[in-house]
Design brief:
With 486 residues, the chain is of the alpha/beta class. The protein has 19 helices and twelve strands.
Length: 486
């Protein structure tokens, strides 16, 4: 049986713009589109309230000529850094099919401005190169949140909590400057007004009056305090719930990009995969959210391990695990991939049929041992070996597994460990081909496998030819298709 495991590199091999950079650059172009004057402060409504307001506005003015700010493919990718890649995409796809409506442009602008995660990622767009880096940035925010939660709990006098946010304080507990900058993206801190009494200069007769002075200082946002009041104390749960909701809103923005841009790219030519070792897959396990193989090649059973995009998207986008003890106590598991996979009901079961078969084989061997245990040692050994050898072919899995475009990163180590355990007890005729883009990619892929599996297992698999590394198969873009046919 041929099994194909795909990661983002598979889509990129087909010149589909699914890199983190592609997404962020398109969002930047949408942000910069002139759509007329917007409300100065969008925070007067939630993003969901704004969507209803905009829907109503477009419905009332559906015949109006005032909404002339739809965006073509070239406009959407006008700020792209990966110019050569996009030129290839334009060569092989009907880009005229891509036209973001004025309504979608305006709604996306509102969503971007109101999404804390997007604003945070945008500020770090140069240092975040891949989706793995993106996950690390999420983890960074969670670590900062955990540290500050512990610090705030140590402020026993809630009236003095504002002192934690004083940057130039020389002693006592205070927020780190770097942590403060990060939390500012997530509305954790808010300017509060407070009163002080200022004495007036004494008059000649010795009399004087005190005046009330209104001052400003940074303090925790009351939105994240019990009852909306700082005096009631900070609620870590409220803050983490906000972070999670904002992450889900960010996922929805990404889903719209995949739906309205990537999945609408239709080929203008015939396409085929060419390689001496390539076998058409009988089944696909996908770490992507797109249905690229089915859409561009052939209909195959696909299991989406991290969910899929679309109207009923269940995209998984988070961290591998919650490591901080403070976050564990707060049960902040909604940020983890494994929680999201379970909660969103993705196709998270991986190679389970084959793992179950191995488990059943082990039970059968124990049963055989029980059958022969009353015999003498020689009869026991010979009879048991004879029975096991008879079942040897039945115990083989006969799998040819190709991995294309997956980083084999530590974030997916559970899947990798499962895959490379299939030949553990015997040679079950499981062979794995890892495709790589170039020598640098091959180096990184081997490094990642060594880090997860250890050198002994990797050496064993390569020595037995169970594991090989090959260059990516060639994607041949052949005869042109007319637009009417597409």
């Amino acid at each position: 049986m041929n099994i194909l495991i795909v990661g983002n590199g598979f889509d990129l091999s087909h010149y589909l713009p699914t890199k983190y950079d592609h997404f962020m650059d398109v969002m930047s172009a949408i942000e910069g589109k002139n759509t007329g004057e917007k409300v100065p402060n969008l925070t007067i409504h939630t993003v969901h309230e704004w969507m209803d307001i905009l829907d109503e506005m477009f419905l009332k003015n559906k015949n109006s000529n005032s909404f002339k700010f739809e965006m073509s493919f070239d406009e959407l990718f006008s700020k792209i850094r990966d110019i050569k890649f996009i030129e290839k995409a334009k060569e092989y796809y009907f880009i005229d099919k891509i036209n973001l409506s004025a309504k979608d442009v305006l709604k996306t602008q509102y969503k971007l401005e109101l999404n804390c995660w997007y604003q945070y990622f945008k500020n770090h767009v140069k240092e975040v190169k891949t989706w793995i880096d993106f996950e690390q940035k999420i983890e960074e925010v969670l670590i900062v949140a955990a540290r500050c939660i512990v610090d705030i709990k140590n402020f026993h006098i809630i009236e003095n909590l504002h002192q934690y946010f004083v940057k130039n304080k020389k002693d006592g507990l205070k927020i780190r400057n770097r942590d403060s900058k990060i939390l500012n993206f997530f509305n954790a801190v808010k300017i509060e007004k407070y009163e002080t009494l200022k004495p007036r200069p004494l008059l000649k007769d010795g009399s004087g009056e005190e005046t009330i002075v209104i001052n400003e200082r940074e303090n925790i946002n009351p939105k994240f305090c019990y009852g909306g009041k700082i005096i009631n104390g900070f609620s870590p749960e409220l803050f983490l719930d906000f972070l999670y909701e904002q992450l889900e809103d960010f996922i929805e923005i990404f889903n719209l990009y995949l739906e309205l841009v990537v999945n609408k790219l239709l080929l203008n030519c015939e396409v085929e995969i060419q390689s001496l070792d390539w076998g058409c897959p009988d089944k696909i396990y996908s770490f992507n959210y797109t249905n690229t193989y089915q859409r561009l090649h052939d209909t195959v059973n696909v299991e989406y391990l991290h969910g899929s995009c679309g109207e009923h998207q269940n995209i998984v986008l988070g961290v591998s695990d919650v490591k901080d003890e403070a976050l564990k106590k707060l049960k902040a598991y909604g940020f983890t991939k494994y929680h999201q996979k379970l909660f969103k009901d993705t196709d998270y079961l991986f190679l389970d049929n084959y793992k179950n078969k191995i488990s059943q084989d082990e039970k059968d061997i124990f049963t055989l041992k029980d059958e022969f245990k009353s015999e003498n040692r020689a009869v026991y050994r010979d009879g048991l070996n004879r029975k096991i050898n008879q079942k040897k072919n039945e115990r083989k899995l006969n799998l040819n597994i190709a991995i294309w475009g997956h980083s084999l990163d530590l974030s997916d180590k559970d899947y990798i460990i499962d895959l490379f355990s299939l030949n553990d007890d015997m040679d079950r005729n499981v062979k794995v081909t890892v495709y790589y883009f170039d020598q640098n990619a091959k180096f990184a892929l081997l490094n990642n496998l060594l880090a997860i599996l250890g050198k002994d297992k990797v050496e064993q698999w390569m020595k037995n030819k169970w594991l090989v590394f090959n260059p990516n198969p060639e994607i041949k873009f052949n005869e042109m298709i007319s637009e009417k046919t597409a």
